[in-house]
Amino acid sequence: MDLLQLRYFQTVARFQHISRAAEELSVAQPSLSRTIARLEAELGSPLFERQGRSIRLNEYGAMFLRHVDRTLSELDDGIRSVREAGDLGLGRLAIACETLLTITTVLGSFRITQPRAEVRLFQSNAQEMQRQLRAGEVDFCVASQPLAGPHLESIELIREEVLLAVPRGHRLDGRESVTVAELADEPFVTTRKGHWQRTLLDRLFASEGLAPLLSCEGDEPGASQILISAGLGIGLIPAMSREAGTETRVPVAWVHLEAPACYRILTLVWRRDAYLSEAALKFREFITARPFMTHRLPGPARHGS
């Protein structure tokens, strides 16, 4: 068993598709298939279930993947630490967040104070964030949903109200507040399942025994306000957007939603057992030392899992 086999296996397990994995690795599909077959023969057990062109991890593959992820993550951390020890820079900082707009201002300020930091930014949903942390692909996730898993630690950055945004001239324009039941027939602009906006929307409606009517589902939460302003529906937008004055560029009307726990908790999440470069350590200190917004809802500050 060699390192190449493990990296090939990890990539196939990630894509659950031989062709896409081969493309990602820049290797021929038959060569990749033979490598996986040799690994399975050496382990004495199949790691995937194969049905035609489809391939997915079986219980042995899932078990083996957990160990492979930890092993390769430790190895990559070691490589990074050695390289960065002889480097004049601060090292790499990799961050994942659900919408790039959330972190843009903070990251821009950090780059001004630490120009030698090498920064890489990913846009990911909660499920992808967990995988990226586990695989060591990112140092931090700025998440709007709880990320569960062993060895994860987090610091709460914001606990903010989530408002209802409606197009100007809408029947709710000018209302101070509204209940979920009053929105039963309103089309919603939202994100696909897996993003915090959709999770919150589904939960609020389910608490009333309802299901939301959807007019638009997307993968970019930051585009919701633009679509709402264009009249495609109404939607849930964090108070941060109103605080930032985005309504001057993308005009919408803001309404308070009379519903329990209608807020977003934004957290910085990392693996406590992972190597963090000097750039990553300085970023964590930087982002936790400054407020994201002026008005916060009260809440706890830090927890591990």
What can you see in these coordinates?
- The structure is a single chain.
- The protein is of the alpha/beta class and 305 residues long.
- The protein folds into three domains: 3-79, Winged helix-like DNA-binding domain superfamily/Winged helix DNA-binding domain (Arc Repressor Mutant, subunit A); 88-157 and 265-304, D-Maltodextrin-Binding Protein, domain 2 (3-Layer(aba) Sandwich), CATH 3.40.190.10; 159-263, D-Maltodextrin-Binding Protein, domain 2.
- Helices cover 39% and strands 25% of the residues.
- Strands 3, 4, 5, 6, 7, 10, 11, 12 and 13 form a nine-stranded mixed β-sheet that branches.
- Helix 1 packs across helix 4.
- It is globular and about 70 Å long.
- The model is unreliable at 293-303 (pLDDT under 50).
Provide tags for this entry.
single chain, 305 residues, alpha/beta, Arc Repressor Mutant, subunit A, D-Maltodextrin-Binding Protein, domain 2, 3 domains, nine-stranded mixed β-sheet, two-stranded antiparallel ribbon, 39% helix, disordered C terminus
SSE string, helix = H, strand = E?
A: HHHEEHEHEHEEEEHEHEHEEHE
Strand content: 15-25%
Radius of gyration: 22 Å
Uncertain residue ranges = 293-303
- Biggest β-sheet strands, sense, barrel: 9 strands, mixed
Count of all domains: 3
Mean pLDDT: 86
Annotated CATH topology of the largest domain: D-Maltodextrin-Binding Protein, domain 2
Count of beta strands: 13
Distance between the termini: 33 Å
* Form type: globular
Number of continuous helical runs: 10
Tell me the name of the CATH homologous superfamily of the largest domain.
Periplasmic binding protein-like II
Based on the coordinates given, report the CATH architecture of the largest domain: 3-Layer(aba) Sandwich
- CATH class of the largest domain, please? Alpha Beta
Give the proportion of residues in helices: 25-40%
Structural class: alpha/beta
